[in-house]
UniProtKB/TrEMBL annotation:
Residues 395-593 form the Beta-galactosidase trimerisation domain. Residues 603-655 form the Beta-galactosidase C-terminal domain. The lineage of its organism: Bacteria, Bacillati, Actinomycetota, Actinomycetes, Kitasatosporales. It is an enzyme of class 3 (hydrolase). InterPro entries: Beta_galactosidase_C, Beta_galactosidase_Trimer, Class_I_gatase-like, GH, Glyco_hydro_42, Glyco_hydro_42_N, Glyco_hydro_b. Keywords: Glycosidase, Hydrolase. It catalyses: Hydrolysis of terminal non-reducing beta-D-galactose residues in beta-D-galactosides. Belongs to the glycosyl hydrolase 42 family. Its EC number is 3.2.1.23. Residues 17-384 form the Glycoside hydrolase family 42 N-terminal domain. This is Beta-galactosidase.
Length: 656
């Protein structure tokens, strides 16, 4: 199978989405001049070009794209060619209204924006396949083509009639009989028993709470239907160019796709990442989580498909990236395994919904600070990218994450809406990041053999196979730390006996879990040495615990907040950030896992990739960092010994 290496060929890719259909052809020539100046070596073309390529049903206009591909090739710029299927032309919706998706209230999502396609529509799929086929046939042999980009940020759900029919087919394939479905969905509750497949609906608007198992299956179905759309187009382009890799760009930690499943179907895993530049340290932390997850999905180098060189336009208040931050965050992605640093988009649009979203070339043009910083970064990546590309990141901790657990947990009718899966993932990953412990992610059924420390912030739903996997991991000598509300439900979202699966209770030394005690806004709970937030639990522990930290004060006084039996830890609250960091650092040390560097100040990040050591200063004040031994700093070419100085938002790439 082709991989990212087939496109990077030993370099780090640098470039972005390029939407030349928004500009006259004179501007294209200016674009390639500036691209060369900025050392851009790859652009993604055609993401939203459907109406331009197919102005009327079945008509093709490839002339402009022929000229553009030739122009880019003449200037040595590779093309990641996108199928344009995320934004169908207006004629498709007008001619075939059934191609438009409906939300849970039955409202149509009309054209005039983007992503207005129903994943279930046979007509949409037919038109998407046809344009993909012709695009692939036409450019398969073009020398500029280096990779395929299918659709864009697959994300739409559909609750319409055609989706309902496909949902029934999907359920039939899964359950076989309505009896099996009734059992799995618990339809004895509230008179929901189904006698005929035709009675079953997508998770549409209801008067009061929906059946959670139905919602869970509808989320699974939606991810699977979008994946079918992806694989259908992927298979078409693969037939024409079996030697070229195929990707589709994920949104960061996006709810709607089981990205573990999806990643298996891609040659290259790519992601779009837009941390908030108003908070450089918080943004770096958020970015690190997504980068670690993406690298783990890719099982190696991955592609930063989109980031913003300056402001985005979809937060309440949108700041530019302050001086130096674009460079720093780009190097952070490379440090954490990216072999491509790309942006949305090359040239900032003058019209349309994203005219205030930055581009690599902003409204200020060539002389603008944003472009000048892009230019400097491009030169650096070109100079030392070859030393980095293809290397593996060293990560000694593994965090478990699963979309099905998230989908099951994120529903109405739960005990607290404050303890959501992404918040917990962020809190635990932050603790690791601040302890300078690099983390990979894994699925709870992945082979964990040889991993030294496995951390489960929360997995509300765990299959039997996953529970057995965790137990076998601990029995095999691994250290496991689990947060609260883990192992509560089985794969049908049925609460397990005793509230937490008996095998896990046995593992952690929980004799009885009497009650869950979620905490309200501003409420905390005392524990020996720290305060717990979000959640607490009334646990009766087994007599043979090896260690416990107790609740202090309040209803739970004297009951265990943290339990350890052997190498298995259970944390029944969310310790405040410093306490969680200290706890994880202690557990990691016990498991033989050391921080990347000792004595690093907060706000400084260190990551090892191959033999290289990246040190990144996320603060605005210069710092001096101890790095034992002699190194060469590759960005400056200067030899350093035992310490390195980093300016505001500074980066050092050290080779021993
Ligand atoms: C996403 C999309 C782009 C653009 C950016 C704006 O990443 O893929 O087309 O809309 O968001 O941030």
């Amino acid at each position: 199978m082709p991989s990212l290496d087939d496109t990077t060929r030993g370099r780090v890719l640098f470039g972005g989405d390029y939407n030349p259909e928004q500009w006259p052809e004179e501007t294209w020539r200016e674009d390639v001049r500036l691209m060369r100046d900025a050392r851009v070596n790859s652009v993604t073309v055609g993401v939203f070009s459907w109406a331009r390529l197919e102005p009327r049903p079945g008509v093709r206009d490839f002339g402009w794209l022929d000229r553009l591909m030739d122009l880019l090739h003449e200037h040595g710029i590779g093309v990641v060619l996108a199928t344009p299927t995320s934004a169908p032309p207006p004629w498709l919706g007008r001619l075939h209204p059934e191609t438009l998706p409906r939300d849970a209230d039955g409202r149509v999502e009309w054209w005039g924006g983007r992503q207005h396609f129903s994943h279930s529509s046979a007509v949409y799929r037919r038109y998407a396949a046809a344009i993909t086929e012709d695009l692939a046939a036409r450019y398969a042999a073009h020398p500029a083509l280096t990779m395929w980009h299918i659709n864009n940020e697959y994300c739409t759900a559909d609750h319409g009639d055609e989706a309902a029919a496909r949902f029934r087919g999907w359920l039939r394939a899964k359950y076989g009989t309505t009896d099996a479905l009734n059992t799995a969905w618990g339809t004895a509750f509230w008179s929901q028993r189904y006698d005929d497949w035709g009675e079953i609906l997508p998770a549409r608007h209801t008067h009061y709470l929906k059946n959670p198992a139905q919602v869970l299956d509808f989320r699974r179905f939606t991810s699977d239907m979008l994946l079918e759309c992806f694989t259908a187009e992927r298979d078409i382009v693969r037939r024409h160019t079996p030697h070229l890799p195929v990707t589709t760009n994920f949104m960061p930690l996006f709810f709607g796709q089981d990205a573990w499943r999806w990643a298996e179907e891609e040659d290259v895993v790519s992601v779009d990442l837009y941390p908030d530049p108003r908070d450089p340290v918080g943004g770096a932390r958020d970015g690190a989580l997504v980068q670690d997850l993406t690298r783990s999905q890719a099982r190696g180098p991955w592609m930063l498909m989109e980031q913003a060189a300056g402001a985005v336009n979809w937060r309440g208040v949108n700041h530019p990236r302050p001086r130096g931050l674009n460079r720093l965050w780009s190097w952070q992605a490379v440090a954490r395994g990216a072999d491509a640093v790309c942006y949305f988009q090359w040239r900032q649009s003058r019209q349309g919904a994203e005219k205030f979203h930055s581009g690599m070339v902003g409204h200020a043009g060539e002389r603008g600070r944003t472009f000048q910083e892009v230019r400097r970064l491009g030169a650096e990546l070109e100079r030392i990218g070859g030393e980095v590309a293809g290397r593996q990141v060293t990560a000694d901790v593994t965090v478990l994450h699963d979309w099905h657990a998230w989908w099951a947990a994120e529903q109405d009718g739960r005990l607290s809406s404050r303890a959501g899966h992404p918040n917990l993932l962020a809190a635990w990953h932050r603790a690791l990041w601040e302890a300078h412990l690099t983390a990979d992610f894994a699925h709870p059924e992945h082979d964990l053999t040889g991993r030294r420390l496995v951390v489960v912030p929360q997995l509300y739903l765990l299959t039997d196979a996953a529970i057995d996997n965790l137990r076998a991991y601990v029995e095999g000598g691994g250290t496991l730390v689990c947060g609260f509300l883990t192992g509560v439900a089985d794969e049908d979202d049925r609460v397990r006996p005793g509230g937490v699966d008996p095998r896990l209770r046995e593992l952690f030394g929980i004799r009885v879990l009497h009650e869950w005690w979620p905490l309200g806004e501003g409420e905390t709970v005392g524990c020996d040495g720290f305060r717990g937030t979000l959640w607490s639990e009334e646990i009766e522990a087994a007599d043979d615990l090896d260690e416990r930290i107790d609740y202090r004060g309040g209803e739970l006084d004297g009951l265990p907040a943290v339990l350890r039996r052997g190498r298995a830890w259970y944390v029944s609250t969310l310790p405040e950030p410093d306490a969680l960091r200290a706890l994880l650092a202690r557990i990691a040390a016990g498991a033989g896992v050391r921080p990347v560097l000792d004595g690093l100040p907060q706000g400084v990040e260190a990551v090892r990739r191959g033999e290289l050591l990246f040190v990144l200063n996320h603060g605005r004040e210069p710092v001096t960092v101890a790095v034992p031994g002699p190194h060469r700093e590759l960005l400056t070419g200067v030899a350093v010994r035992d310490e390195v100085r980093l300016e505001r938002f500074g980066v050092a790439v050290l080779r021993p």
